[in-house]
Amino acid sequence: MCYRESDRIMKILYFAPIYYNDMKQRPQQIAECLAKKHQVYYVEPTVSLVRWLLKGGRSFTGMEKRILGNLTVLRLNGSLTIHKSIEILDVCGINSLSELWQLRRLVKQCDLVWTGYSGWYPLIRHWKHIPVLFDKMDEEALLVASKLWKLTLQRNQRRLLRRADVVTVTAVQFYDELKAANKKTYLIPNAVSDSFASGGAHGASFGRLRRANVFGYIGTMSEWFDEAVIWKLLALDSRYEIYLAGRNDRRPICHPRVHYLGILENGQLPALLETFDVCLYNFKQSPLLDTINPVKIYEYLALNKPVLAVKSKETLRFKKYLALYEDVEEIEAIVKQGFWRPFADAKSHRQFLKHNSWEARTAQIEQVFTRLRGSC
Asked: Closest by alpha carbon to 294, among 264, 324, 265?
């Protein structure tokens, strides 16, 4: 299927890796920006009946809800869908038949399939007539515990990369790995919303930083979270307080100066960040690290907060704005040197926000759409 250059509005079927009402990340941000011009159908992960019986939570019955003007959120009925973790054993593709049937009319109407998750490949492989964009955001297999599901995701991703007409990636490492195999690979990093930058009580500060006493982190805390950094900071000064906001999958750090705030709504985060003197990006050195283009770094910088961050391929791209360490033992020297605000004036701050907004990233994606049209 080819586009005509005169086409202005597209119908985009987006197979998302996360639920729309989860903490707002790249999928929801770009879907909302695209929906200002195009008609977007945001398909959430299907909840199987088996999963619902085992874990409860979101209903398996499915739903459809219009958000904004041109954005519709769909969740398919999972009553006839088996748990995804055993999909690698489904050589005949029976598990996807119910979802394919539910989407049969909508797929015929859409101009483009866009996915951010290779778990959707068993459906996408059936639609030969429609262009596919794969937005590779993570090394998915490194983020799951089940060995069977790891194998499934690895297999699906290899096949999806071959099927995709165009690939977008968030990290330099992904770009370096994939550009030789697929010439239509584009680096489109993460970003920050304008509303986030203006969401604090006072906005960005450009004055001299007073002594740092409060260190804070926002985001999920799982096996990649480097607890050693927290203990190092606590040992350096008895006045240091640590605040951690987000889902915690680890054993809590039991210390009177470590405070867990739980999961907060996205709109609460700017005001919270204002209370931090220094923001943390303390991930462990691991194969996962260089694959992460961290949204939290953009959010920290949007409020012009000093940042203490582990060195990686992605944080090195921001090295003039961050205090980077490779080893925990380097942190003491950084703290003694003192922290600085990333932007010295409002003009340089505005330039950063302009070039790293979700609107700017969406404009890049629309350019990819244009190239995809031209290649048909």
From this structure: 324
